[in-house]
Amino acid sequence: MQYWLFKSEPGAWSWDDQVKKGVEHWDGVRNYQANNNMKAMKIGDKGFFYHSVNEKQVVGVVEVVKEHYPDPSDKSERFGMVDIKALYPVKHPVTLAQVKEEPALQDLALVRQSRLSVVPVSKAEWTVMCKMAGIKA
Q1: Average pLDDT for residues 54-78, to the nearest whole number?
Q2: Whole-number Cα distances in Å, 31 to 23, 66, 91, 100, 132
Q3: Strand order in 80-95's β-sheet?
Q4: CB within 8 A of 83, min separation 6: which ones?
Q5: Are 50 and 110 in contact (CB under 8 A)?
């Protein structure tokens, strides 16, 4: 299993939106690296749902339920999407400031590549962040 972090502006698509929908496609990605990250995803992979912009915090956990397929909104036909399912909220949101203060998370792609909307999370980073969030890894 691999782990990921999905970033979304809560005004555009929030954790509450994801929970209400249950399963939804993660579309609109127009960055090659983020798209390649989604191409690497497999059914059953887990991810953090992260509110970007004003909140800058992990708020929930999702699961990949459909692997990479074409994004019909992409006229260039270069980019795709995956489907994710809301699993559960975190007990304690993990802020970007907390992530940056944690030595074990200094190499986290969220810190190093802050502009990417979909980034990988190592198993060790996942474990640390789950502990910070008050959830089981």
Answers
A1: 97
A2: 23, 20, 31, 24, 29
A3: 23-26, 80-95, 57-70, 46-51, 3-8, 118-121
A4: 23, 24, 25, 26, 64, 65, 66
A5: yes
How do residues 19-53 score in pLDDT, each as one tens digit? 999 999 999 999 999 999 999 999 999 999 999 99
pTM of the model: 0.96
Pairing of strands 3-8, 57-70: unpaired
Rounded CA Rg of the chain: 14
- Cα–Cα distance measured from residue 134 to residue 57, given in angstroms and rounded to the nearest whole number: 14
Judged by DSSP in three states, 105 sits in helix
- The Cα–Cα gap between 49 and 12 comes to 13
Q: What is the mean pLDDT of the chain?
A: 97
With a CB cutoff of 8 Å and minimum separation 6, the contacts of 90 are 48, 58, 59, 60, 61, 133, 134, 135
- Domains of the chain are 3-133 (3.10.590.10)
